[in-house]
Amino acid sequence: MKNIVLTGLAIFACQLTFGQIVLKIQGKVSGNTEGHNQVYFYNQLKKDSARIENGTFEVTLHEEEAGTRAISLEYDRAKRRMYSPVVLFYDQSGKINVTFDIEKGLSSAQVTGLPSAATYFDFNAARPKIYMASRKETIEKFGADALKQDHQDFQSATAYMGAIMQQKNDSLMRAYYKPEKLVTADLLLSLLSTLPESKLDNYYQGLSHEVKASETGQVIKAKLQGMKNGKIGSTAPDFSLPDKDNKQRSFSEFKGKYVLLDFWASWCSPCRASFPRIRQVNAKLKGQDFVIVNVSIDKNKDAWLKAVEEEANPWTQLFDDKLISSALFNVGAVPTSYLIDPSGKIIMKEIGFDPKGGGAMEKKLEELFNIKL
């Protein structure tokens, strides 16, 4: 199974500056914590915590601008339990109420209070239901086995399911679409890999000037452009980014070789888990017309530099301070890798990492260089 992490831009995109936001988060927790009482509130730049006492917790956060904080639990870490964080959106001062059963996990959470936070939560809570409903309809039409890759109806069934999901997600977006609200840009951002480019563009064009000017609005604009630039068969655009020594490096300097352009982040555990295998691949292809270029989507440059030093990968490391991951390549999850041929044409894209190796990207490299990785 491939491992991926949604990009920081997708999860933690910040918004326009409004002056300081004072956010009070109050929680009610049922179930036995077994002494694992800490609740964490974090994004890429900050981390705070509160302690559950007598079934409640409270924390006051001071933010300079609108954005998001994700919630995670000490209980989940202690139990080594898989979880999806609850993400709280805020665009003004106010109170957010969070309730959940600690034994059932954050999947049991409910969010009320600040309208934008409730909207963001309710919208994202509806997304898995769309997937399940679409899958159910597909199975009713084709049978459960049709969704297995080796089934003769796999392509027809997955296309059918994709069309249903697209329709349902479009209906969901219409139900929550308020072009003057900052939260709408974040909802739209979450659907960039789900809706057709034309629909996405129509939603973006309908946003108010202020929402378009927000950081998330700018990310959406960049990603829409990236959808056009990052298609298989298109020529990879040139760009210039700083390396770990703060020297500007142009992508054009690698032209004439096959380039594995690998997008990652210091906080992305699947990305960092991929590096030992990539180092093996790099060693096997030593002497070939092949190079690897890492591009980090970190916002925290110090965290990136620390991770670069820890990993000590023997290839070029670049820091994406110009959002080229969005504007030029439409990276929506990390790790994401592009394989670019010596003429500069994009010939393959792979999202995620298989810890066992042997994925489609490796098979393509084996084919190109007549080598067994």
TrEMBL record:
Its subcellular locations are:
Cell envelope
Which keywords, in A-to-Z order, does the entry hold? Cytochrome c-type biogenesis, Disulfide bond, Redox-active center
Q: Mainly resides where?
A: other
Q: Which SUPFAM superfamilies match?
A: Thioredoxin-like
Q: Indicate the segments forming the Thioredoxin domain, all copies.
A: 230-373
The cross-references to CDD domains, in alphabetical order and at most eight, read: TlpA_like_family
Q: What is this protein called?
A: AhpC/TSA family protein
Q: Which InterPro entries match?
A: AhpC/TSA (IPR000866), DUF4369 (IPR025380), Thioredoxin-like_sf (IPR036249), Thioredoxin_domain (IPR013766), Thioredoxin_ResA/DsbE_sf (IPR050553)
